[in-house]
Amino acid sequence: MKKLISLMLAVVMVVGLVACGNQGTTAAETTKAAAETGKISGKLEVAAFSNGDLNDQYWQAAKEEFNKLYPDVEVTLILSANIEESMRPRFVADNPPDVYYMGGQANADIAPLTAEGKLLDLSEWYNSVEAIGYDGLLKDNMATAMLNRYNGGIYGMGTTYGVWACLYNKKMLEEHGWKLPNNWQEFEALAAEIKATTDIYPIIHQGQYPDYMGYGLMQGGIATDGGKDLLVKMGNLDVSAFDDPAVVSAYKKYEEIRENDWAPEYCLSMSHTESQLMWLQGKALFLPCGNWLAGEMADSLPEGFEIGLFPTFWHDKDETPAMIGSGAYTVIPAAAKNPEAAKAFMQVLFSKTMIRKAAELGRGIPTMKDDLDGQKLDDESQQVLDLANAGKVNVIFEIGGAGNFEPYGEMRTAIKNAIAAILSGEKDAKTALEEIKTEIERIKNDESITKVTISVS
Description:
There is one protein chain. This protein is of the alpha/beta class. The protein is about 40% helix and about 15% strand. The protein has 18 helices and 14 strands. It has helices at about 1-5, 25-35, 55-70, 85-90, 110-115, 125, 170-175, 185-195, 210-225, 230-235, 245-260, 270-280, 295, 340-350, 350-360, 380-390, 410-425, 430-445; strands spanning about 40-50, 75-80, 100, 145-150, 155, 160-170, 200-205, 285-290, 305-310, 320-325, 330, 365, 395-400, 455. Strands 6, 7, 8, 9, 10, 12, 13 and 14 form an 8-stranded mixed sheet that branches. Strand 1 (about 40-50), helix 3 and strand 2 (about 75-80) form a beta-alpha-beta unit. Helix 3 packs across helix 14, helix 3 (about 55-70) runs antiparallel to helix 15 and helix 9 crosses helix 10. The longest helix has 17 residues, at about 55-70. The radius of gyration is 23 Å and the shape is globular. The protein starts with a helix and ends with a strand.
């Protein structure tokens, strides 16, 4: 139990995003659940991360939707922006809630809870339960299977997600007749053309926060060229993974950016909002970021500015590109007092009504295949959803750590410093990678650092 408590004090993963429409309960939804209503009764306790009125509205709507189908269940909602503080001791005492949405700081706890056997395996349920409001099974209606997998089991599911990606200035691209690069070689050719014919930079980045380059471009490139398991090996402190040709090539690309002056030198000293503002002012074509940028920079968006989004060009192979997703999971504790009602509640969360409610209240990109009756999310999130539904991107999620395939703070610092050093010309890629490997080895052998094991979905 001491191990559980210590592991539950690590890392944070935070999500945010979008907006869309909603509809009421359909007759089909009621019919699908009616056969199960008779055996679902008693009390149900639902604990969830909620940091504001919109999230409170979502969970209240979920309760009401559930009770339309299961009126004999007494549902208690426990909502808090610091939900983990009250839930951690309850898990230790084997007195958890029946359903737990692990957003905010609670995301840090999913790895130890899973490893310690504190969560219910949902595999059998996931592979057989119907999707309420959709045709067929839940698993067959998922556009993006955001699942907390462990040792062959499924210990949590996500209804919505956000992504790191490459953003571009749509009008600029169209006005100059440029085409989006499908790989690094095409980016090289485009970047050279941009530099030779305009005063525009091919790319701008958030210099004070090099992880934007890492998450928005490089990680997807590594996963595309070397496979998603390569990112897992790196996160699990496999030093040899940093010698993989896909990783070496990914870091050398920073050298090429610097040597060819493809990004403005002044952005090295800028914050994320400062660099993003320069991008919005037309200083560059590409920007590494996520589908949340429009919301984050809403007050600075020029009138008529159109944000385009695509996965990454940081890869050499002509494969379907990978995109790094992040989100929060809903789980059912192994010691839940009413597990059957908890599964029914989970089923309702993935119903058409609640998927659309989540979109309406800005909770993220739906994991379910749903055209939302033509009503769109914000433009960037809709582009991600369209790419995922069309099979033009592999959205991958880290399971068990900080949500970014770099589960240790010391590791994130070493990688950020390496990217910054290469971009500034302080170090070459080979030297920077050797220093990362030295730090990975130190973390691996430091017994004071609590270790986690990550996987990928």
